[in-house]
Amino acid sequence: MTTKATQSNEPVGRFLGWLGLRQSRGAPPEGGHAPPFDLVRQARYELAASITSFLVDNDLDVSPANLLLAHSAFSGRNPRLARQVIAQAQSADGIHQKWLDELGEQDIGLPDRADLDRLMTRLETNLESFHANTKEARSVTSDYGTELEQHVIDLEQLQKTGRIVSNLADLAKVMLDRTRKAEDDMRKSEDEAKALRRSLERAKRDAEVDYLTGLPNRRAFEVLLDRHHKEARAACEPLSVAFCDIDEFKKVNDIHGHDAGDRVIKAIADTLARISNDHCHVARHGGEEFVMLFRGLTPTQAAEKLDDAREALADRRLINRKTDEPFGQITFSGGVADVFGYGDTRAALKAADAALYKAKAGGRNRIEIADPA
């Protein structure tokens, strides 16, 4: 039997269902309860969001140094740093890059490179998840908004619908406006996530590339050495390392200036890069020193290959193009060691470095092979 009360509620129920506003009845979610809330994952998202907001809101570079500072402050591992950040944010100057750089020079107990790698990986993962979620949410919101807009048009065209239909139409308009705004906000968030991900990729590359020569830096070389050491050992292949150092480089800087010295470093880097390939890697170790890895070559073979590069450079006569003054003969010395001739890679690098200084003491412009341990 249908009562008047039931009949009067039917139009309301139909309109609410049409608008997707009626609360569904029936069985609880599968399993009888809602899934548990992952507190650890939520904490990670909140940490990543705090770091992201800190960098974006204060117009800061997404650099390794800034990420280390932000992670230390917001993760709770450095309360003193967190207090400094809060105090600066409340000051008249606010947070800016120069202040952050000066702060980074202080001994404030920042995490090491491994922490940075984990942080950047975590941020990249969170950004990928955020990008996918916002894209999906924006798509769903857009579809919902389009359907809702059509419902509004249909409601406005109804005649003699009474006060409840008019109120529902007004409510639908407000919801439509909010839906459109949410869609715009999510689109902007999606664009910001893309930009931040690109910045993270650049920061990751910058952390592994020498800014002057474009070669891998010392940190990147250590990763390469570790990988090739494991692979070469498994394949029973020879593996050699070498150190190279520009001879009498201080004279170049003293006579021609540091800018000219940088150009000489680039010239040496280009010379060594020409002999590199998938099994021969060169990196700038620091200053005027380079380090090389030779996969599949014995120390004697590696020394011969390096000596060819040394002779090619020694035969050139470089000129300071800013002053047209000749640099004179530019040479380098090198030391080579068998990686598997020592207990570990560090010992092999130390042996190659000792062979380099043996070459320096022997007259420079030469390559020496380290004696096995």
Strand order of the largest sheet: 2-3-1-6-7
- Biggest sheet overview: 5 strands, mixed
Our Rg estimate from Cα atoms comes to: 33 Å
Shape: elongated
Description:
The protein is of the alpha+beta class and 373 residues long. It folds into 3 domains: 39-111, no CATH class; 130-207; 218-369, Reverse transcriptase/Diguanylate cyclase domain (Alpha-Beta Plaits, 2-Layer Sandwich), CATH 3.30.70.270. It contains 12 helices and 7 strands. It has helices at 4-18, 39-57, 64-74, 79-90, 97-104, 113-157, 162-206, 218-235, 249-256, 258-273, 299-314, 345-361; strands spanning 239-246, 280-286, 289-295, 318-320, 325-328, 332-338, 367-369. Strand 4 and strand 5 (325-328) form a beta hairpin. The chain is elongated. Residues 1-37 have low confidence and may be disordered.
In short:
With 373 residues, this protein is of the alpha+beta class. The chain is built from twelve helices and seven strands.
Ordered list of secondary-structure elements with their pairings:
Blueprint: H1 4-18, H2 39-57, H3 64-74, H4 79-90, H5 97-104, H6 113-157, H7 162-206, H8 218-235, E1 239-246, H9 249-256, H10 258-273, E2 280-286, E3 289-295, H11 299-314, E4 318-320, E5 325-328, E6 332-338, H12 345-361, E7 367-369
Parallel strand pairs: 6-7
Antiparallel strand pairs: 1-3, 1-6, 2-3, 4-5
Helix pairs in contact: 2-3, 3-4, 3-6, 6-7, 9-10
